[in-house]
Amino acid sequence: MQVAHGNLLTKLPSDSSAEVFELLHERAGLKIERIVSNGQASPPGFWYDNPQEEWVLLLSGSAGLTIADTAEEHVMQPGAWLHIPAHCRHRIEWTDATQPTIWLAVHHEVSNET
Amino acid sequence: MQVAHGNLLTKLPSDSSAEVFELLHERAGLKIERIVSNGQASPPGFWYDNPQEEWVLLLSGSAGLTIADTAEEHVMQPGAWLHIPAHCRHRIEWTDATQPTIWLAVHHEVSNET
């Protein structure tokens, strides 16, 4: 049986002018993707508010992530993970300006969960 | 809102005599865990045959993983990922003998999928 495989730390996108999303695996209710940031941040005043829950892992680089209604910024270094419940508003304050920041994001649909 | 968070590369288990599984997140149909190996391998002749599909990522260390019915061994280095379909038999031939091998495993239930 052939299986899909790859490496999150290699074949980085050459264009660093925008965040690059790469779908790695998708099934009903589940999506796994790599995100590569190069200094990008959420626009001022913008908050993500996603219907899916998200489990996110930082593999390389660094980033600051804020959860709405908390004063705390999560400074993420390699190996750091965070579980963001559905409709938990959050924003990326900053990503590393000196090297690519590589994320793994696991999106999970929970709307039909009993 | 408080969110669960941690770092996969820190707080490694002190006991290296067996693989250590740590549940990071669990929802209906989804389980995310960290696995730390210290030279362990699957027993001779043993094959994993799981009803869930598994998406696995190696963060640190190294390992060799074989898929049944293929002659190929996947030598996994940091950043390497592999998607293992449900009931795709596989085994771990070896893990790094000189340092901990840290895995992220995403298990996804597919039995009720339409």
Automatic annotation (TrEMBL), chains A, B:
* Stored Pfam families: Cupin_2
Give the SUPFAM superfamilies listed for this entry. Answer: RmlC-like cupins
Where is each Cupin type-2 domain found?
47-106
Which top-rank group of organisms is this from?
Bacteria
Q: Which InterPro entries match?
A: Cupin_2, RmlC-like_jellyroll, RmlC_Cupin_sf
The name of this protein is: Cupin type-2 domain-containing protein
Q: What is the lineage of its organism?
A: Bacteria, Pseudomonadati, Pseudomonadota, Betaproteobacteria, Burkholderiales
